Task: structure prediction
Amino acid sequence: MALIELALPDRMRVLVAEDDCVQALVMTSFLQHFGIESTVVTDGAQAIRAVQDGDFDLVLMDCLMPVATGVDATLAVRRWEQLTDRLPVPIVAVTAGAMREDCDRCLAAGMDGVLLKPFTAQQLHDTIARHLPCEVRG
Result:
């Protein structure tokens, strides 16, 4: 099945928060194939700082990371966005935890969706398309 092309801006940026180097490589390789620029961080505290310092169109957030979990990082990002009056960046949980409670915990923390590991390029592509802000979609 061929990937449906996304209508992307010239310089779409995605933050990949993933402590497993193999998973990070898979995600960044897929993103590069889609023509998306990515930045990788390896723990939740780095993810919080990257969102605060960067201008990302989407965050792919691993749930189990050192220093701060993906849920904790998302809660901190959402608090910061509220305090600074910023529009929320879409955050998608990337997790192997397929239990309903795991997904519910991610969504309750303010994540916008969940992508289950292992995933295909098509599943990542569809997730990105679903969670792009309207102004990015065109």
